[in-house]
Amino acid sequence: MRVIMFFDLPSTSKAEVREYSLFVKFIKKHGFSMMQESVYTKLALNQAVVDKTMAELRKNVPKEGIISILVLTEIQFNSIENILGEIKSDVISSDKKVVIL
After folding, report:
1. By the 8 A CB rule, do 76 and 15 touch?
2. Which domains does the chain have, with CATH numbers?
3. How many whole angstroms separate alpha carbon 46 and alpha carbon 67?
4. CB-based contacts of 39: which residues, under 8 Å, 6+ apart?
5. Which of 63, 35, 67 has its CA nearest to residue 54?
6. Is 66:29 a contact under the CB 8 Å cutoff?
7. Predicted local confidence at residue 81, as pLDDT
């Protein structure tokens, strides 16, 4: 199973930025990894892990903002299709020893 967390937390004041940072540290410590900005995912082996994760999140929810949780089976999660636009980068990727610009 996968636990997908979507969140929108305010980050306009110093205190809000600090709370945002503390929350991100907390979820990373508890096994979440970033899928996109403000979208984190965690692998859960069974429903007991999902329930424990939900209980931990409820105890550590920030004062303001919105957190949404979606639980998917691994088959459903693997059906996610990522559609990417053109990626622009200043990094030159080449196996040549000398690159002439």
Report:
1. no
2. 2-78 (3.30.70.240)
3. 22
4. 4, 5, 6
5. 67
6. no
7. 86
Strand ranges across the sheet with 39-43: 33-36, 39-43, 2-8, 66-72
CB 44 within 8 A of CB 2: yes
| Amino acid (one-letter) located at 65 | G
- Cα 42 off chain centre by: 8
Q: What is the mean pLDDT, run by run of 10 residues, along the chain of 101 residues?
A: 92 90 93 92 94 92 90 90 77 61 66
Q: How many residues does the chain have?
A: 101
Cα 90 vs. chain centroid, distance in angstroms?
A: 25
* 6 contacts 70 by C-beta, under 8 angstroms: yes
Task: Give the 3-state secondary structure of residue 56.
Answer: helix
